Amino acid sequence: xxxxxxGSVALDSVKTPFGxxxxxxxxxxxxxxAAASFFSKVQLVGVVGEDFPERExxxxxxxxxxxxxxxxxxGKTFRWKGEYGFDxxxxxxxxxxxxxxxxxxxxxxxxxxxxxxxxxxxxHPSLQGKVLDQVKRPKLVALDTMNFWIEGELPAxxxxxxxxxxxxxxxxxxxELTREASLLKxxxxxxxxxxxxxxxxxxRGEYGALLFYKDGIFSAPGxxxxxxxxxxxxxxxxxxxxxxxxxxxxxxxxxxxxxxxIVGSVMASFNVEDFSCRRLKRLTSAEINGRxxxxxxxxxxxxxxx
Length: 306
Hints:
Layout: E1 3-6, E2 10-16, E3 19-26, H1 28-36, E4 42-49, H2 58-62, E5 66-73, E6 79-84, E7 91-97, E8 117-120, H3 125-134, E9 140-144, H4 147-152, H5 154-161, E10 166-170, H6 171-178, H7 183-191, E11 199-203, E12 209-213, E13 216-220, H8 234-249, H9 254-271, H10 278-281, H11 285-299
Parallel strand pairs: 1-4, 1-8, 2-6, 4-5, 8-9, 9-10, 10-11
Antiparallel strand pairs: 2-3, 6-7, 11-12, 12-13
Helix pairs in contact: 1-8, 3-5, 6-7, 8-9, 9-11
């Protein structure tokens, strides 16, 4: 089954203690697609300006990502500039220029409206709802958000959360959104926001991820890495691996959700090894399989008998 992703397409300028990159390919929809395209066909909806270097997305087109929903408007592409200190879990925003993204109103091409899986990147909640109004009911709808929408658009955000099946969120946002200090209580509260209990994935950066499903919890470890350059887009590449694997399997059950968390963690671990999408651009399937084994070895132990 294919995946429809709606989100930002940006040019990022990022500095970390280990290097920097200027006007590099970024945005939630791009990082998501770079990861998901290893497992499934991806259809992307977003907006760029006339200055966008289209050659930068050729590698995604070659992987089968469909850009028929990418709108090109007069003006400049969304730009973000930020830096990280030695705590790579915290980004400091230096500049944000929304440019054409400020007027973005997603229009879903008719050929995209029957996608089996839908990922709503962290755009305005009202726009996420507008996307839901344009598509036929997918097999699974997942949503990401951010503190900006939690603080400024909480009623709209709660409304759109009630319409999705799965929420992907980081731990600080989960606490802020629910006003719960405990991640367990935060996730359980989120699961009640809607007519059906929903699945919640809490991203914890280098410390792994937690999956909260109807009857239980699954914890994926953080993989210690030898090379770590830039965490920008790691959460979106996690979501891309997660959704890509679910779409590839065609099943939504506890076993595949757990496997999807590991695959998402694998893709995020590669993403941080270089700036922008450079590492995912040169990544191979053999490397992905090798790192999946690393995750399994890291967390496996035999039964303990006392």
